[in-house]
């Protein structure tokens, strides 16, 4: 089968091979035929080494497709079922799951160290234990979440990561209050989803911040009340909040510098929500006095900060009701052979989300 492979961490191009085999099928596993997958910035971060991932590997974790086969002991799934890929499945038995924090379950991370694929040259890993830039993938049954027939594969793929992450940051983690002021720093697919989440929660002012003009224009279509370049944020803070700072600021870049800007843009007693996935060596610094005196809440949000299955269901309900726009998030489409084109579209900021169709 075909799959896109990164040979070594640090390379900026993927190579598409047609001799890749999905491996690991057996009890508790399912084989999926991937139909659509989104390119998420986390894939690029894994390629550059910002996020740890053994190489060689097949990127991709935001996918959807059909069940081809199910292993012994798998219940609730049958060949032909439409599913999205959940890259962080809850095991249901660990302390985090028992506390109702299944999004903090580490069982899924353990899969990242087991090869999902094989070529003649040896084992190949799948990013985050999945690897959806491939025509087929074998994953644990918990990674395959059924979706209704009226949800297209491309929409289901987005729900599998970016949309759930952004919406959940506003709805689950920050719990944006109606009538509040919000700033979102970084307006790619996840940032735009955060804007939509803040709008659903009833925020009165939503300021989108991004260096790319096309993304700022898009943010306005998705619910931002205004959109500014990063060097205009201080002025927006003064105009919108009379200099006090925003009630909620979302950092959706994954850099300490933008997190520091987000902190300074948050009002005293307000909420800074960190959504972007950053590197191990990129340190975010605060002094102990400001931490105490400003009483700002700093809330990291991993995968939307809540029960992911419930978040998927909520997202589908909001989409069906016309409360959120998911179709327009997909600004570009390419075949698997165009995966490097998709990477360029993300790096330049040209795309909100590129759908890779298999």
Overall mean pLDDT stands at 95
Q: Main β-sheet: number of strands, strand sense, barrel status?
A: 7 strands, mixed
Poorly predicted ranges (pLDDT <50, ≥5 residues)?
none
- Return the structural class: alpha/beta
Radius of gyration: 20 Å
- Name the shape in a single word: globular
Distance between the termini: 11 Å
Helix content: 25-40%
Number of helices: 12
What amount of the residues lies in strands?
Answer: 25-35%
Total strand segments: 19
How does this model look, in words?
With 358 residues, this protein is of the alpha/beta class. Helix content is 29%, strand content 26%. It is built from twelve helices and 19 strands. Helix 5 (162-173) packs parallel to helix 6 and helix 5 crosses helix 11 (308-320). The longest helix is centred in the C-terminal third of the chain and has 13 residues, at 308-320. The radius of gyration is 20 Å and the shape is globular.
Could you list some keywords that capture this structure?
19 strands; seven-stranded mixed beta sheet; globular; 358 residues; 29% helix; alpha/beta; 12 helices; six-stranded parallel beta sheet
Quick overview:
By secondary structure, this protein is an alpha/beta fold. It has helices at about 40-50, 95-100, 105-110, 155-160, 160-175, 190-200, 215-220, 235-240, 255-265, 290-295, 310-320, 340-350; strands at about 5, 15, 20, 30-40, 55-60, 60-70, 80-85, 115-120, 120-125, 135-140, 145, 180-185, 205-210, 225-230, 245-250, 265-275, 295-300, 330-335, 355. The model has no long low-confidence stretch (mean pLDDT about 95).
């Amino acid at each position: 089968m075909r799959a896109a492979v990164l040979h070594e961490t640090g390379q900026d191009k993927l190579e598409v091979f047609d001799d890749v085999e999905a491996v690991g099928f057996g009890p508790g596993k399912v084989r999926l035929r991937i139909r659509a997958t989104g390119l998420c910035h986390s894939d690029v971060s894994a390629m550059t080494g910002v996020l740890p991932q053994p190489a060689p590997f097949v990127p991709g974790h935001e996918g959807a497709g059909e069940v081809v086969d199910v292993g012994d002991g798998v219940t609730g799934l049958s060949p032909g079922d439409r599913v999205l890929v959940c890259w962080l499945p809850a095991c249901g038995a660990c302390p985090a799951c028992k506390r109702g924090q299944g999004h903090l379950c580490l069982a899924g991370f353990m899969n990242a160290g087991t090869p999902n694929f094989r070529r003649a040259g040896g084992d190949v890993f799948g990013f985050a234990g999945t690897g959806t830039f491939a025509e087929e993938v074998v994953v644990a049954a918990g990674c395959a979440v059924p979706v209704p027939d009226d949800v297209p594969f491309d929409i289901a793929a987005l729900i599998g990561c970016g949309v759930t992450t952004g919406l959940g940051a506003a709805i689950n983690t920050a719990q944006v209050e109606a009538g509040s002021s919000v700033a979102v720093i970084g307006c790619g697919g996840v940032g735009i989803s955060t804007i939509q989440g803040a709008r659903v929660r009833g925020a009165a002012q939503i300021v989108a911040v991004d260096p790319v003009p096309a993304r700022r224009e898009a943010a306005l279509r998705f619910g931002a009340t205004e959109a500014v370049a990063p060097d205009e944020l201080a002025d927006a803070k003064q105009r919108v909040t009379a200099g006090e700072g925003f009630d909620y600021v979302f950092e959706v870049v994954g850099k300490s510098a933008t997190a520091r800007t987000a902190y300074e843009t948050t009002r005293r007693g307000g909420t800074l929500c960190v959504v972007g996935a950053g590197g191990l060596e990129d340190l975010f610094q605060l002094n102990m006095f400001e931490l105490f005196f400003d009483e700002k809440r700093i809330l990291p949000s991993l995968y939307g900060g809540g029960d992911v299955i419930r978040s998927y269901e909520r997202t589908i309900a909001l989409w069906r009701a016309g409360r959120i726009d998911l179709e327009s998030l997909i600004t570009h489409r390419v075949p698997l052979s165009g995966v490097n084109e998709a990477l360029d579209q993300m790096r330049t900021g040209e795309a909100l989300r590129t759908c890779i169709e298999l």
